[in-house]
TrEMBL record:
Protein name listed in UniProt: SAM-dependent methyltransferase
Domain of life of the source: Bacteria
One MF annotation (Gene Ontology) recorded for this entry: S-adenosylmethionine-dependent methyltransferase activity
Entry annotated with the keyword Mitochondrion: no
Domain called Methyltransferase type: residue spans: 603-700
Protein keywords: Methyltransferase, S-adenosyl-L-methionine, TPR repeat, Transferase
Keyword flag S-adenosyl-L-methionine: yes
GO biological process, one term: methylation
Gene3D superfamilies assigned to the protein according to its UniProt record, in alphabetical order: Tetratricopeptide repeat domain (1.25.40.10), Vaccinia Virus protein VP39 (3.40.50.150), YVTN repeat-like/Quinoprotein amine dehydrogenase (2.130.10.10)
Organism in which the protein naturally occurs: Pseudomonas monteilii
Residues in TPR repeats: 443-476
Pfam families named among the record's database cross-references: Methyltransf_11, WD40
Length: 801
């Protein structure tokens, strides 16, 4: 069995669920919502009737006859009403109360109704002939209560206030008092009144059991990060709802049996008398009804088997009985419970036997159900104890696919990979612990590159790529099998030596193009032409890197500059992920100069530190820079020593301080376009068009708002990034605006297609002679494989017609 519970149905009621109750046999369910609607439906989700109230619903109860009682509160004065409806939804009576009810108890036969009000008054309605008589009873010795609960088949009532639990009879007389270890926030009692639960403010709970709860045994439970709802069955099986959206089931000893996601905060929970049906109601309006396979009779059966196994004197019989019970629990899906019992200390097994039985149980579970992330985590812990690091890392990685376990699982996976000597996988796992989801396109590209390296004999490189893919998705294609094959292989095979100058990118292009029939296109088709164009572009860009010796550029800034220009210094001496973006932009910009040039006179809008005007001036171009911020202009002039070329000006891009048709190249780089108010982008484009000569080019490099891994530059604050997000113009919008202003769109180049965290893991962000080439190759590999993919930036190249 995949899980110890199965969903019968799930329905959204359109408003937060504030209360629910069900009959002892779960044949009927009443749901109260914040929109003041009460709905009664059957076990199979068929509506019986609904009622809309003028005031807010505060509590609801249901009997087996079936009648439904509801309490409401008037917002204006805090008064309330109590109403009783028959099986058809017809009102039997409705009585106003001076204080709003906060709990209602309705006997199974609907003969008796008990109402507890916020002013601590208590009212009892008894059937009299064809109607009901309501009377107020004295609530002796009671302090204002935080919550209460009442049983339907008996007169047991629970009230909690701070650290005191009161058990009351039908006349509000105190029959038992229980001091609690911490302040109580919620309580519930079973239909029969022989079991109860009290939730405490620290997220723990107490289970109560005994004759009408007068003299009861309590069991402490560490339950959840906060408790928002509770319910308990006749046999003591408890349900706990939490603000994190989790629904948990505990046995009568307080041991966790299972947990599942219910939706939003679980404000209401219920359980049938025999524990076979569990229901939850959430703040997102969702109500779920589950069949619980770990019901009261099953739990009693397991209790008996556990006791018998623990008492067997013969060592072999003791172990066999434990193994048989573990298998039975596994078949029901109670894997975590089984492991807890195995390690709980009540069995007389050696540590080696415990580990072996746990591994056998968990390995079978993940074999049958690979998505059981908790089982993967427990199995990884077992392998970790044995110092079987590779297996531990593998299953911690699987466990990390559950977002709730991601941080802990990937951190432990990283530690295990380190112990196993797999450093790239360790680095990837540590980053994965704090990273957002990586796209399928990135996984496919990394896998393809790993396969190409493997086929070419570069096994260390192949393993590096495979390890990163494995930490992203352990079940991705055959990556696990390929990794295991490489690890078994160990060293390089005889006679197979990888070439130092092997062009793996060319192999990627060939892999995509050949054999053409298997790829669905033939040479000369649009796709083949597109790939050939990427390969040709790569050749040009590599020649740019070599010609300009880009990896040897001096990035040092003048440390003597004033603190006022610290932001510009941070831009000049930025962190590796920023440098990666700047490098990709730079090499593509230089390619534009060579491919679309030559150019005579240029203007850079948003010149900031003067990076591009300085670069263009060095190429023999008369270069100008303009920036709205005077301190940027001052910084750029100081940096260039006051040279006449480049020449920096203070000015607004919406009204450029230059005559018309002055430039044959205008640039706007590194996201400057996202600094313009969105509504002003057309105006800026108009000014660029005015200042360009006919046939002149404009290159705009800016942030691509459609990129799923967009991070901007690290120098920006959260507020600045949000403003740029609001200002950002998509590739499509920018092209339309450019055409409307009289430009022809020559090209749109995506930049930064690989998430930078993966660049770190593959050492693509590190300084060194191959850094820019490696970044470029990865970008073009993604572009070749996925032509429509969005990168962190795009470069729009347009020409004035």
């Amino acid at each position: 069995m995949e899980a110890p519970h199965s969903e019968l149905w799930s329905r959204n009621f359109g408003a937060p669920v504030t209360g629910l109750c069900l009959t002892a046999d779960a044949a009927l369910l009443a749901v109260a919502c914040r929109n003041r609607t009460l709905t009664v439906l059957t076990r199979d989700c068929r509506p019986c009737w609904s009622q809309h109230f003028a005031d807010e619903l505060t509590c609801v109860a249901i009997s087996t006859t079936p009648c439904v009682a509801a309490g409401t509160q008037r917002a204006s004065d805090g008064s309330g009403t109590v109403s009783l409806f028959d099986a058809d939804g017809q009102a039997l009576f409705s009585v106003p109360l001076a204080s709003a009810p906060y709990d209602i108890s309705l006997s199974a036969d609907s003969e008796r109704l008990v109402v507890l009000c916020q002013d601590q008054s208590q009212h009892i309605a008894n059937r009299s002939g064809s109607g009901y008589e309501l009377r107020q009873v004295e609530a002796r010795h009671l302090e204002p209560a935080a919550s209460s609960a009442a049983s339907s088949h008996s007169a047991s009532l629970l009230k909690i206030r701070e650290r005191l639990l009161s058990v009351l009879n039908q006349d509000a007389g105190i029959v038992a008092l229980h001091e609690l270890p911490r302040t109580a926030v919620k309580c519930a009692v079973s239909h029969t009144g022989f079991a109860g639960i009290v939730a405490l403010e620290d997220g723990s709970a107490l289970l109560l059991e005994g004759d009408s709860l007068r003299q009861c045994e309590t069991t402490a439970v560490v339950a959840a990060p906060g408790i928002s709802s509770v319910a308990v069955s006749g046999g003591g099986t408890a349900v706990i709802g939490s603000p994190d959206g989790t629904l948990r089931l505990l046995n009568r000893q307080g041991k966790p049996l299972w947990a599942c996601r219910a939706g939003g905060e679980v404000w209401a929970a219920g359980i049938s008398q025999d524990g076979s049906i569990v229901v939850s109601g959430c703040t997102d309006g969702t109500v779920k009804l589950l069949v619980n396979h770990a019901h009261d009779s099953y739990n009693q059966h397991i209790d008996l088997l556990q006791m018998n196994a623990e008492q067997l004197a013969d060592e072999a019989e003791h172990r066999d009985a434990a193994e048989a019970l573990l298998a039975q629990l596994g078949q029901t899906g109670l894997i975590e419970y089984a492991v807890d019992w195995l390690n709980g200390g009540s069995l007389r097994l050696s540590q080696a036997d415990r580990e072996a039985l746990a591994i056998k149980l968990l390995a079978e579970d993940v074999r049958l159900f690979p998505s059981h992330c908790t089982s993967h985590f427990l199995l990884a812990q077992a392998y970790q104890k044995r110092q079987e690091w590779h297996l531990a890392a593998r299953h911690f990685t699987w466990a990390g696919q559950d977002d709730r376990m991601k941080l802990k699982s990937f951190t432990l996976a990283g530690e295990s990979f380190l112990m196993a000597g797999h450093h790239f996988a360790a680095k990837s796992a540590f980053r994965r612990a704090r990273e957002l989801t990586v796209s399928e396109e990135a996984k496919k590209t990394l896998y393809t590159l790993g396969r190409i390296h493997q086929e070419q004999g570069s096994f260390a490189e192949a393993q590096k790529y495979y390890e990163v893919v494995f930490t992203l998705s352990p079940d991705y294609l055959d990556v696990d099998a390929r990794l295991q094959h490489l690890r078994r292989q160990g060293t390089q095979p005889e006679g197979l030596r990888p070439s130092d100058d092997k062009d793996w990118y060319a192999s990627l292009i060939l892999e995509l193009l050949d054999p053409a029939a298997q790829r669905g296109f033939t040479p000369g088709t649009a796709r083949a032409t597109q790939l050939a164009g990427v390969a040709e572009q790569r050749g040009r860009l590599l020649s740019v890197i070599a010609e300009f010796a880009l990896d040897k550029a001096d990035k040092a800034a003048d440390a003597a500059l004033d603190y006022d220009v610290a932001a510009y210094m941070r831009y000049d001496c930025s962190v590796p992920e920023d440098e990666a973006k700047k490098s990709l932009e730079l090499v593509n910009m230089l390619d534009c100069l060579k491919h679309y040039g030559p150019f005579r006179r240029s203007l850079d809008i948003g010149a900031a530190t003067g990076r591009y005007p300085t670069l263009l001036a060095r190429q023999g171009i008369q270069a100008f820079g303009v920036d709205l911020e005077p301190r940027a202009v001052e910084y750029a002039r100081q940096k260039t020593g006051g040279a006449l070329n480049p020449d920096f000006h203070q000015g607004d891009a919406r009204a450029l301080p230059f005559e018309s048709t002055q430039f044959d190249l205008i640039t706007c780089m590194m996201g400057t376009a996202a600094h313009f108010p969105r509504q002003d982008f057309s105006r800026v484009m108009s000014e660029i068009h005015r200042c360009l000569v006919p046939g002149g080019f404009c290159v705009i490099s800016t942030w691509d708002i459609e990129c799923p891994h967009l991070t901007y530059l690290s120098i920006y604050s959260h507020e600045q990034k949000e403003l740029m997000r609001q200002n950002a113009i998509s590739r499509g919008e920018a092209s339309e605006i450019a055409r409307a202003q009289g430009f022809a769109v020559e090209e749109i180049r995506p930049l930064g297609l690989l998430p930078e965290s993966l660049g770190y893991e593959l050492d693509l962000q590190q300084d060194g002679p191959a850094r820019i080439r490696n970044l470029l190759d990865m970008d073009l590999a993604l572009k070749a494989k996925f032509p429509s993919l969005h990168g962190q930036m795009y470069m729009l190249i347009i020409r004035k017609t």
